[in-house]
């Protein structure tokens, strides 16, 4: 049970970011926050993977797919659900420690942590763009088929 407590923390953090991003509808706040908690849950459940970037990639695919589904169901932009849902995955700690190693002059750790952080950020970007591109291709295909 304690292992999944961070999902609750992710939910609360995402609810707080809803205020910053001016999401006003209680239903949207709940679903955005739930999406963030699910993203962290997927990240936690994939701890068997040897590459951390793969964990970020799979979690981002899950959060992006759910954001697209919620956007269609609620007739709202997917960006709302996606941006807030990705918040728990952002490698802020990695960025902090990368800069800390740079300032302290530990260039070996700076390089290692920097590459790890860049891989995580790249995996997040790749996962989100992959799902978004796939949804757009399917939507264009559906629209082209309907016009024929």
What does this protein look like?
The protein is mainly α and about 150 residues long. The chain has one domain (about 1-145). The chain has helices spanning about 5-20, 25-45, 50-75, 80-85, 90-105, 105-145.
N-C termini distance: 53 Å
Annotation, overall tally of beta strands: 0
| Uncertain stretches | none
What is the global morphology?
globular
Number of domains: 1
Radius of gyration: 17 Å
What portion of residues belong to β-strands? under 5%
Annotation field: number of helices: 6
Features:
mainly alpha, single chain, 148 residues, 6 helices, 82% helix, globular
In short, what is this structure?
This protein is mainly alpha-helical and 148 residues long. α1 packs antiparallel against α2 (26-45), α2 packs antiparallel against α3 (52-74) and α3 runs antiparallel to α4.
Layout of SSEs?
Layout: H1 5-20, H2 26-45, H3 52-74, H4 78-86, H5 92-104, H6 107-147
Helix pairs in contact: 1-2, 2-3, 2-4, 3-4, 3-6, 5-6
């Amino acid at each position: 049970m304690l292992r999944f407590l961070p999902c609750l923390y992710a939910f609360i953090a995402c609810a707080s970011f809803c205020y910053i991003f001016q999401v006003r509808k209680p239903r949207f706040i709940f679903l955005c926050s739930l999406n963030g908690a699910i993203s962290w849950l997927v990240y936690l459940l994939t701890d068997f993977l040897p590459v951390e970037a793969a964990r970020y990639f799979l979690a981002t695919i899950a959060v992006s797919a759910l954001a697209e589904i919620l956007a269609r169901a609620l007739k709202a932009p997917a960006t709302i659900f996606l941006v807030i849902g990705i918040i728990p995955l952002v490698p802020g700690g990695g960025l902090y420690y990368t800069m800390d190693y740079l300032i302290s002059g530990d260039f070996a750790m700076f390089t290692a942590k920097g590459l790890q952080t860049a891989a995580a950020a790249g995996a997040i970007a790749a996962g989100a763009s992959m799902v978004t591109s796939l949804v757009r291709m399917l939507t264009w295909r559906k629209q082209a088929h309907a016009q024929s």
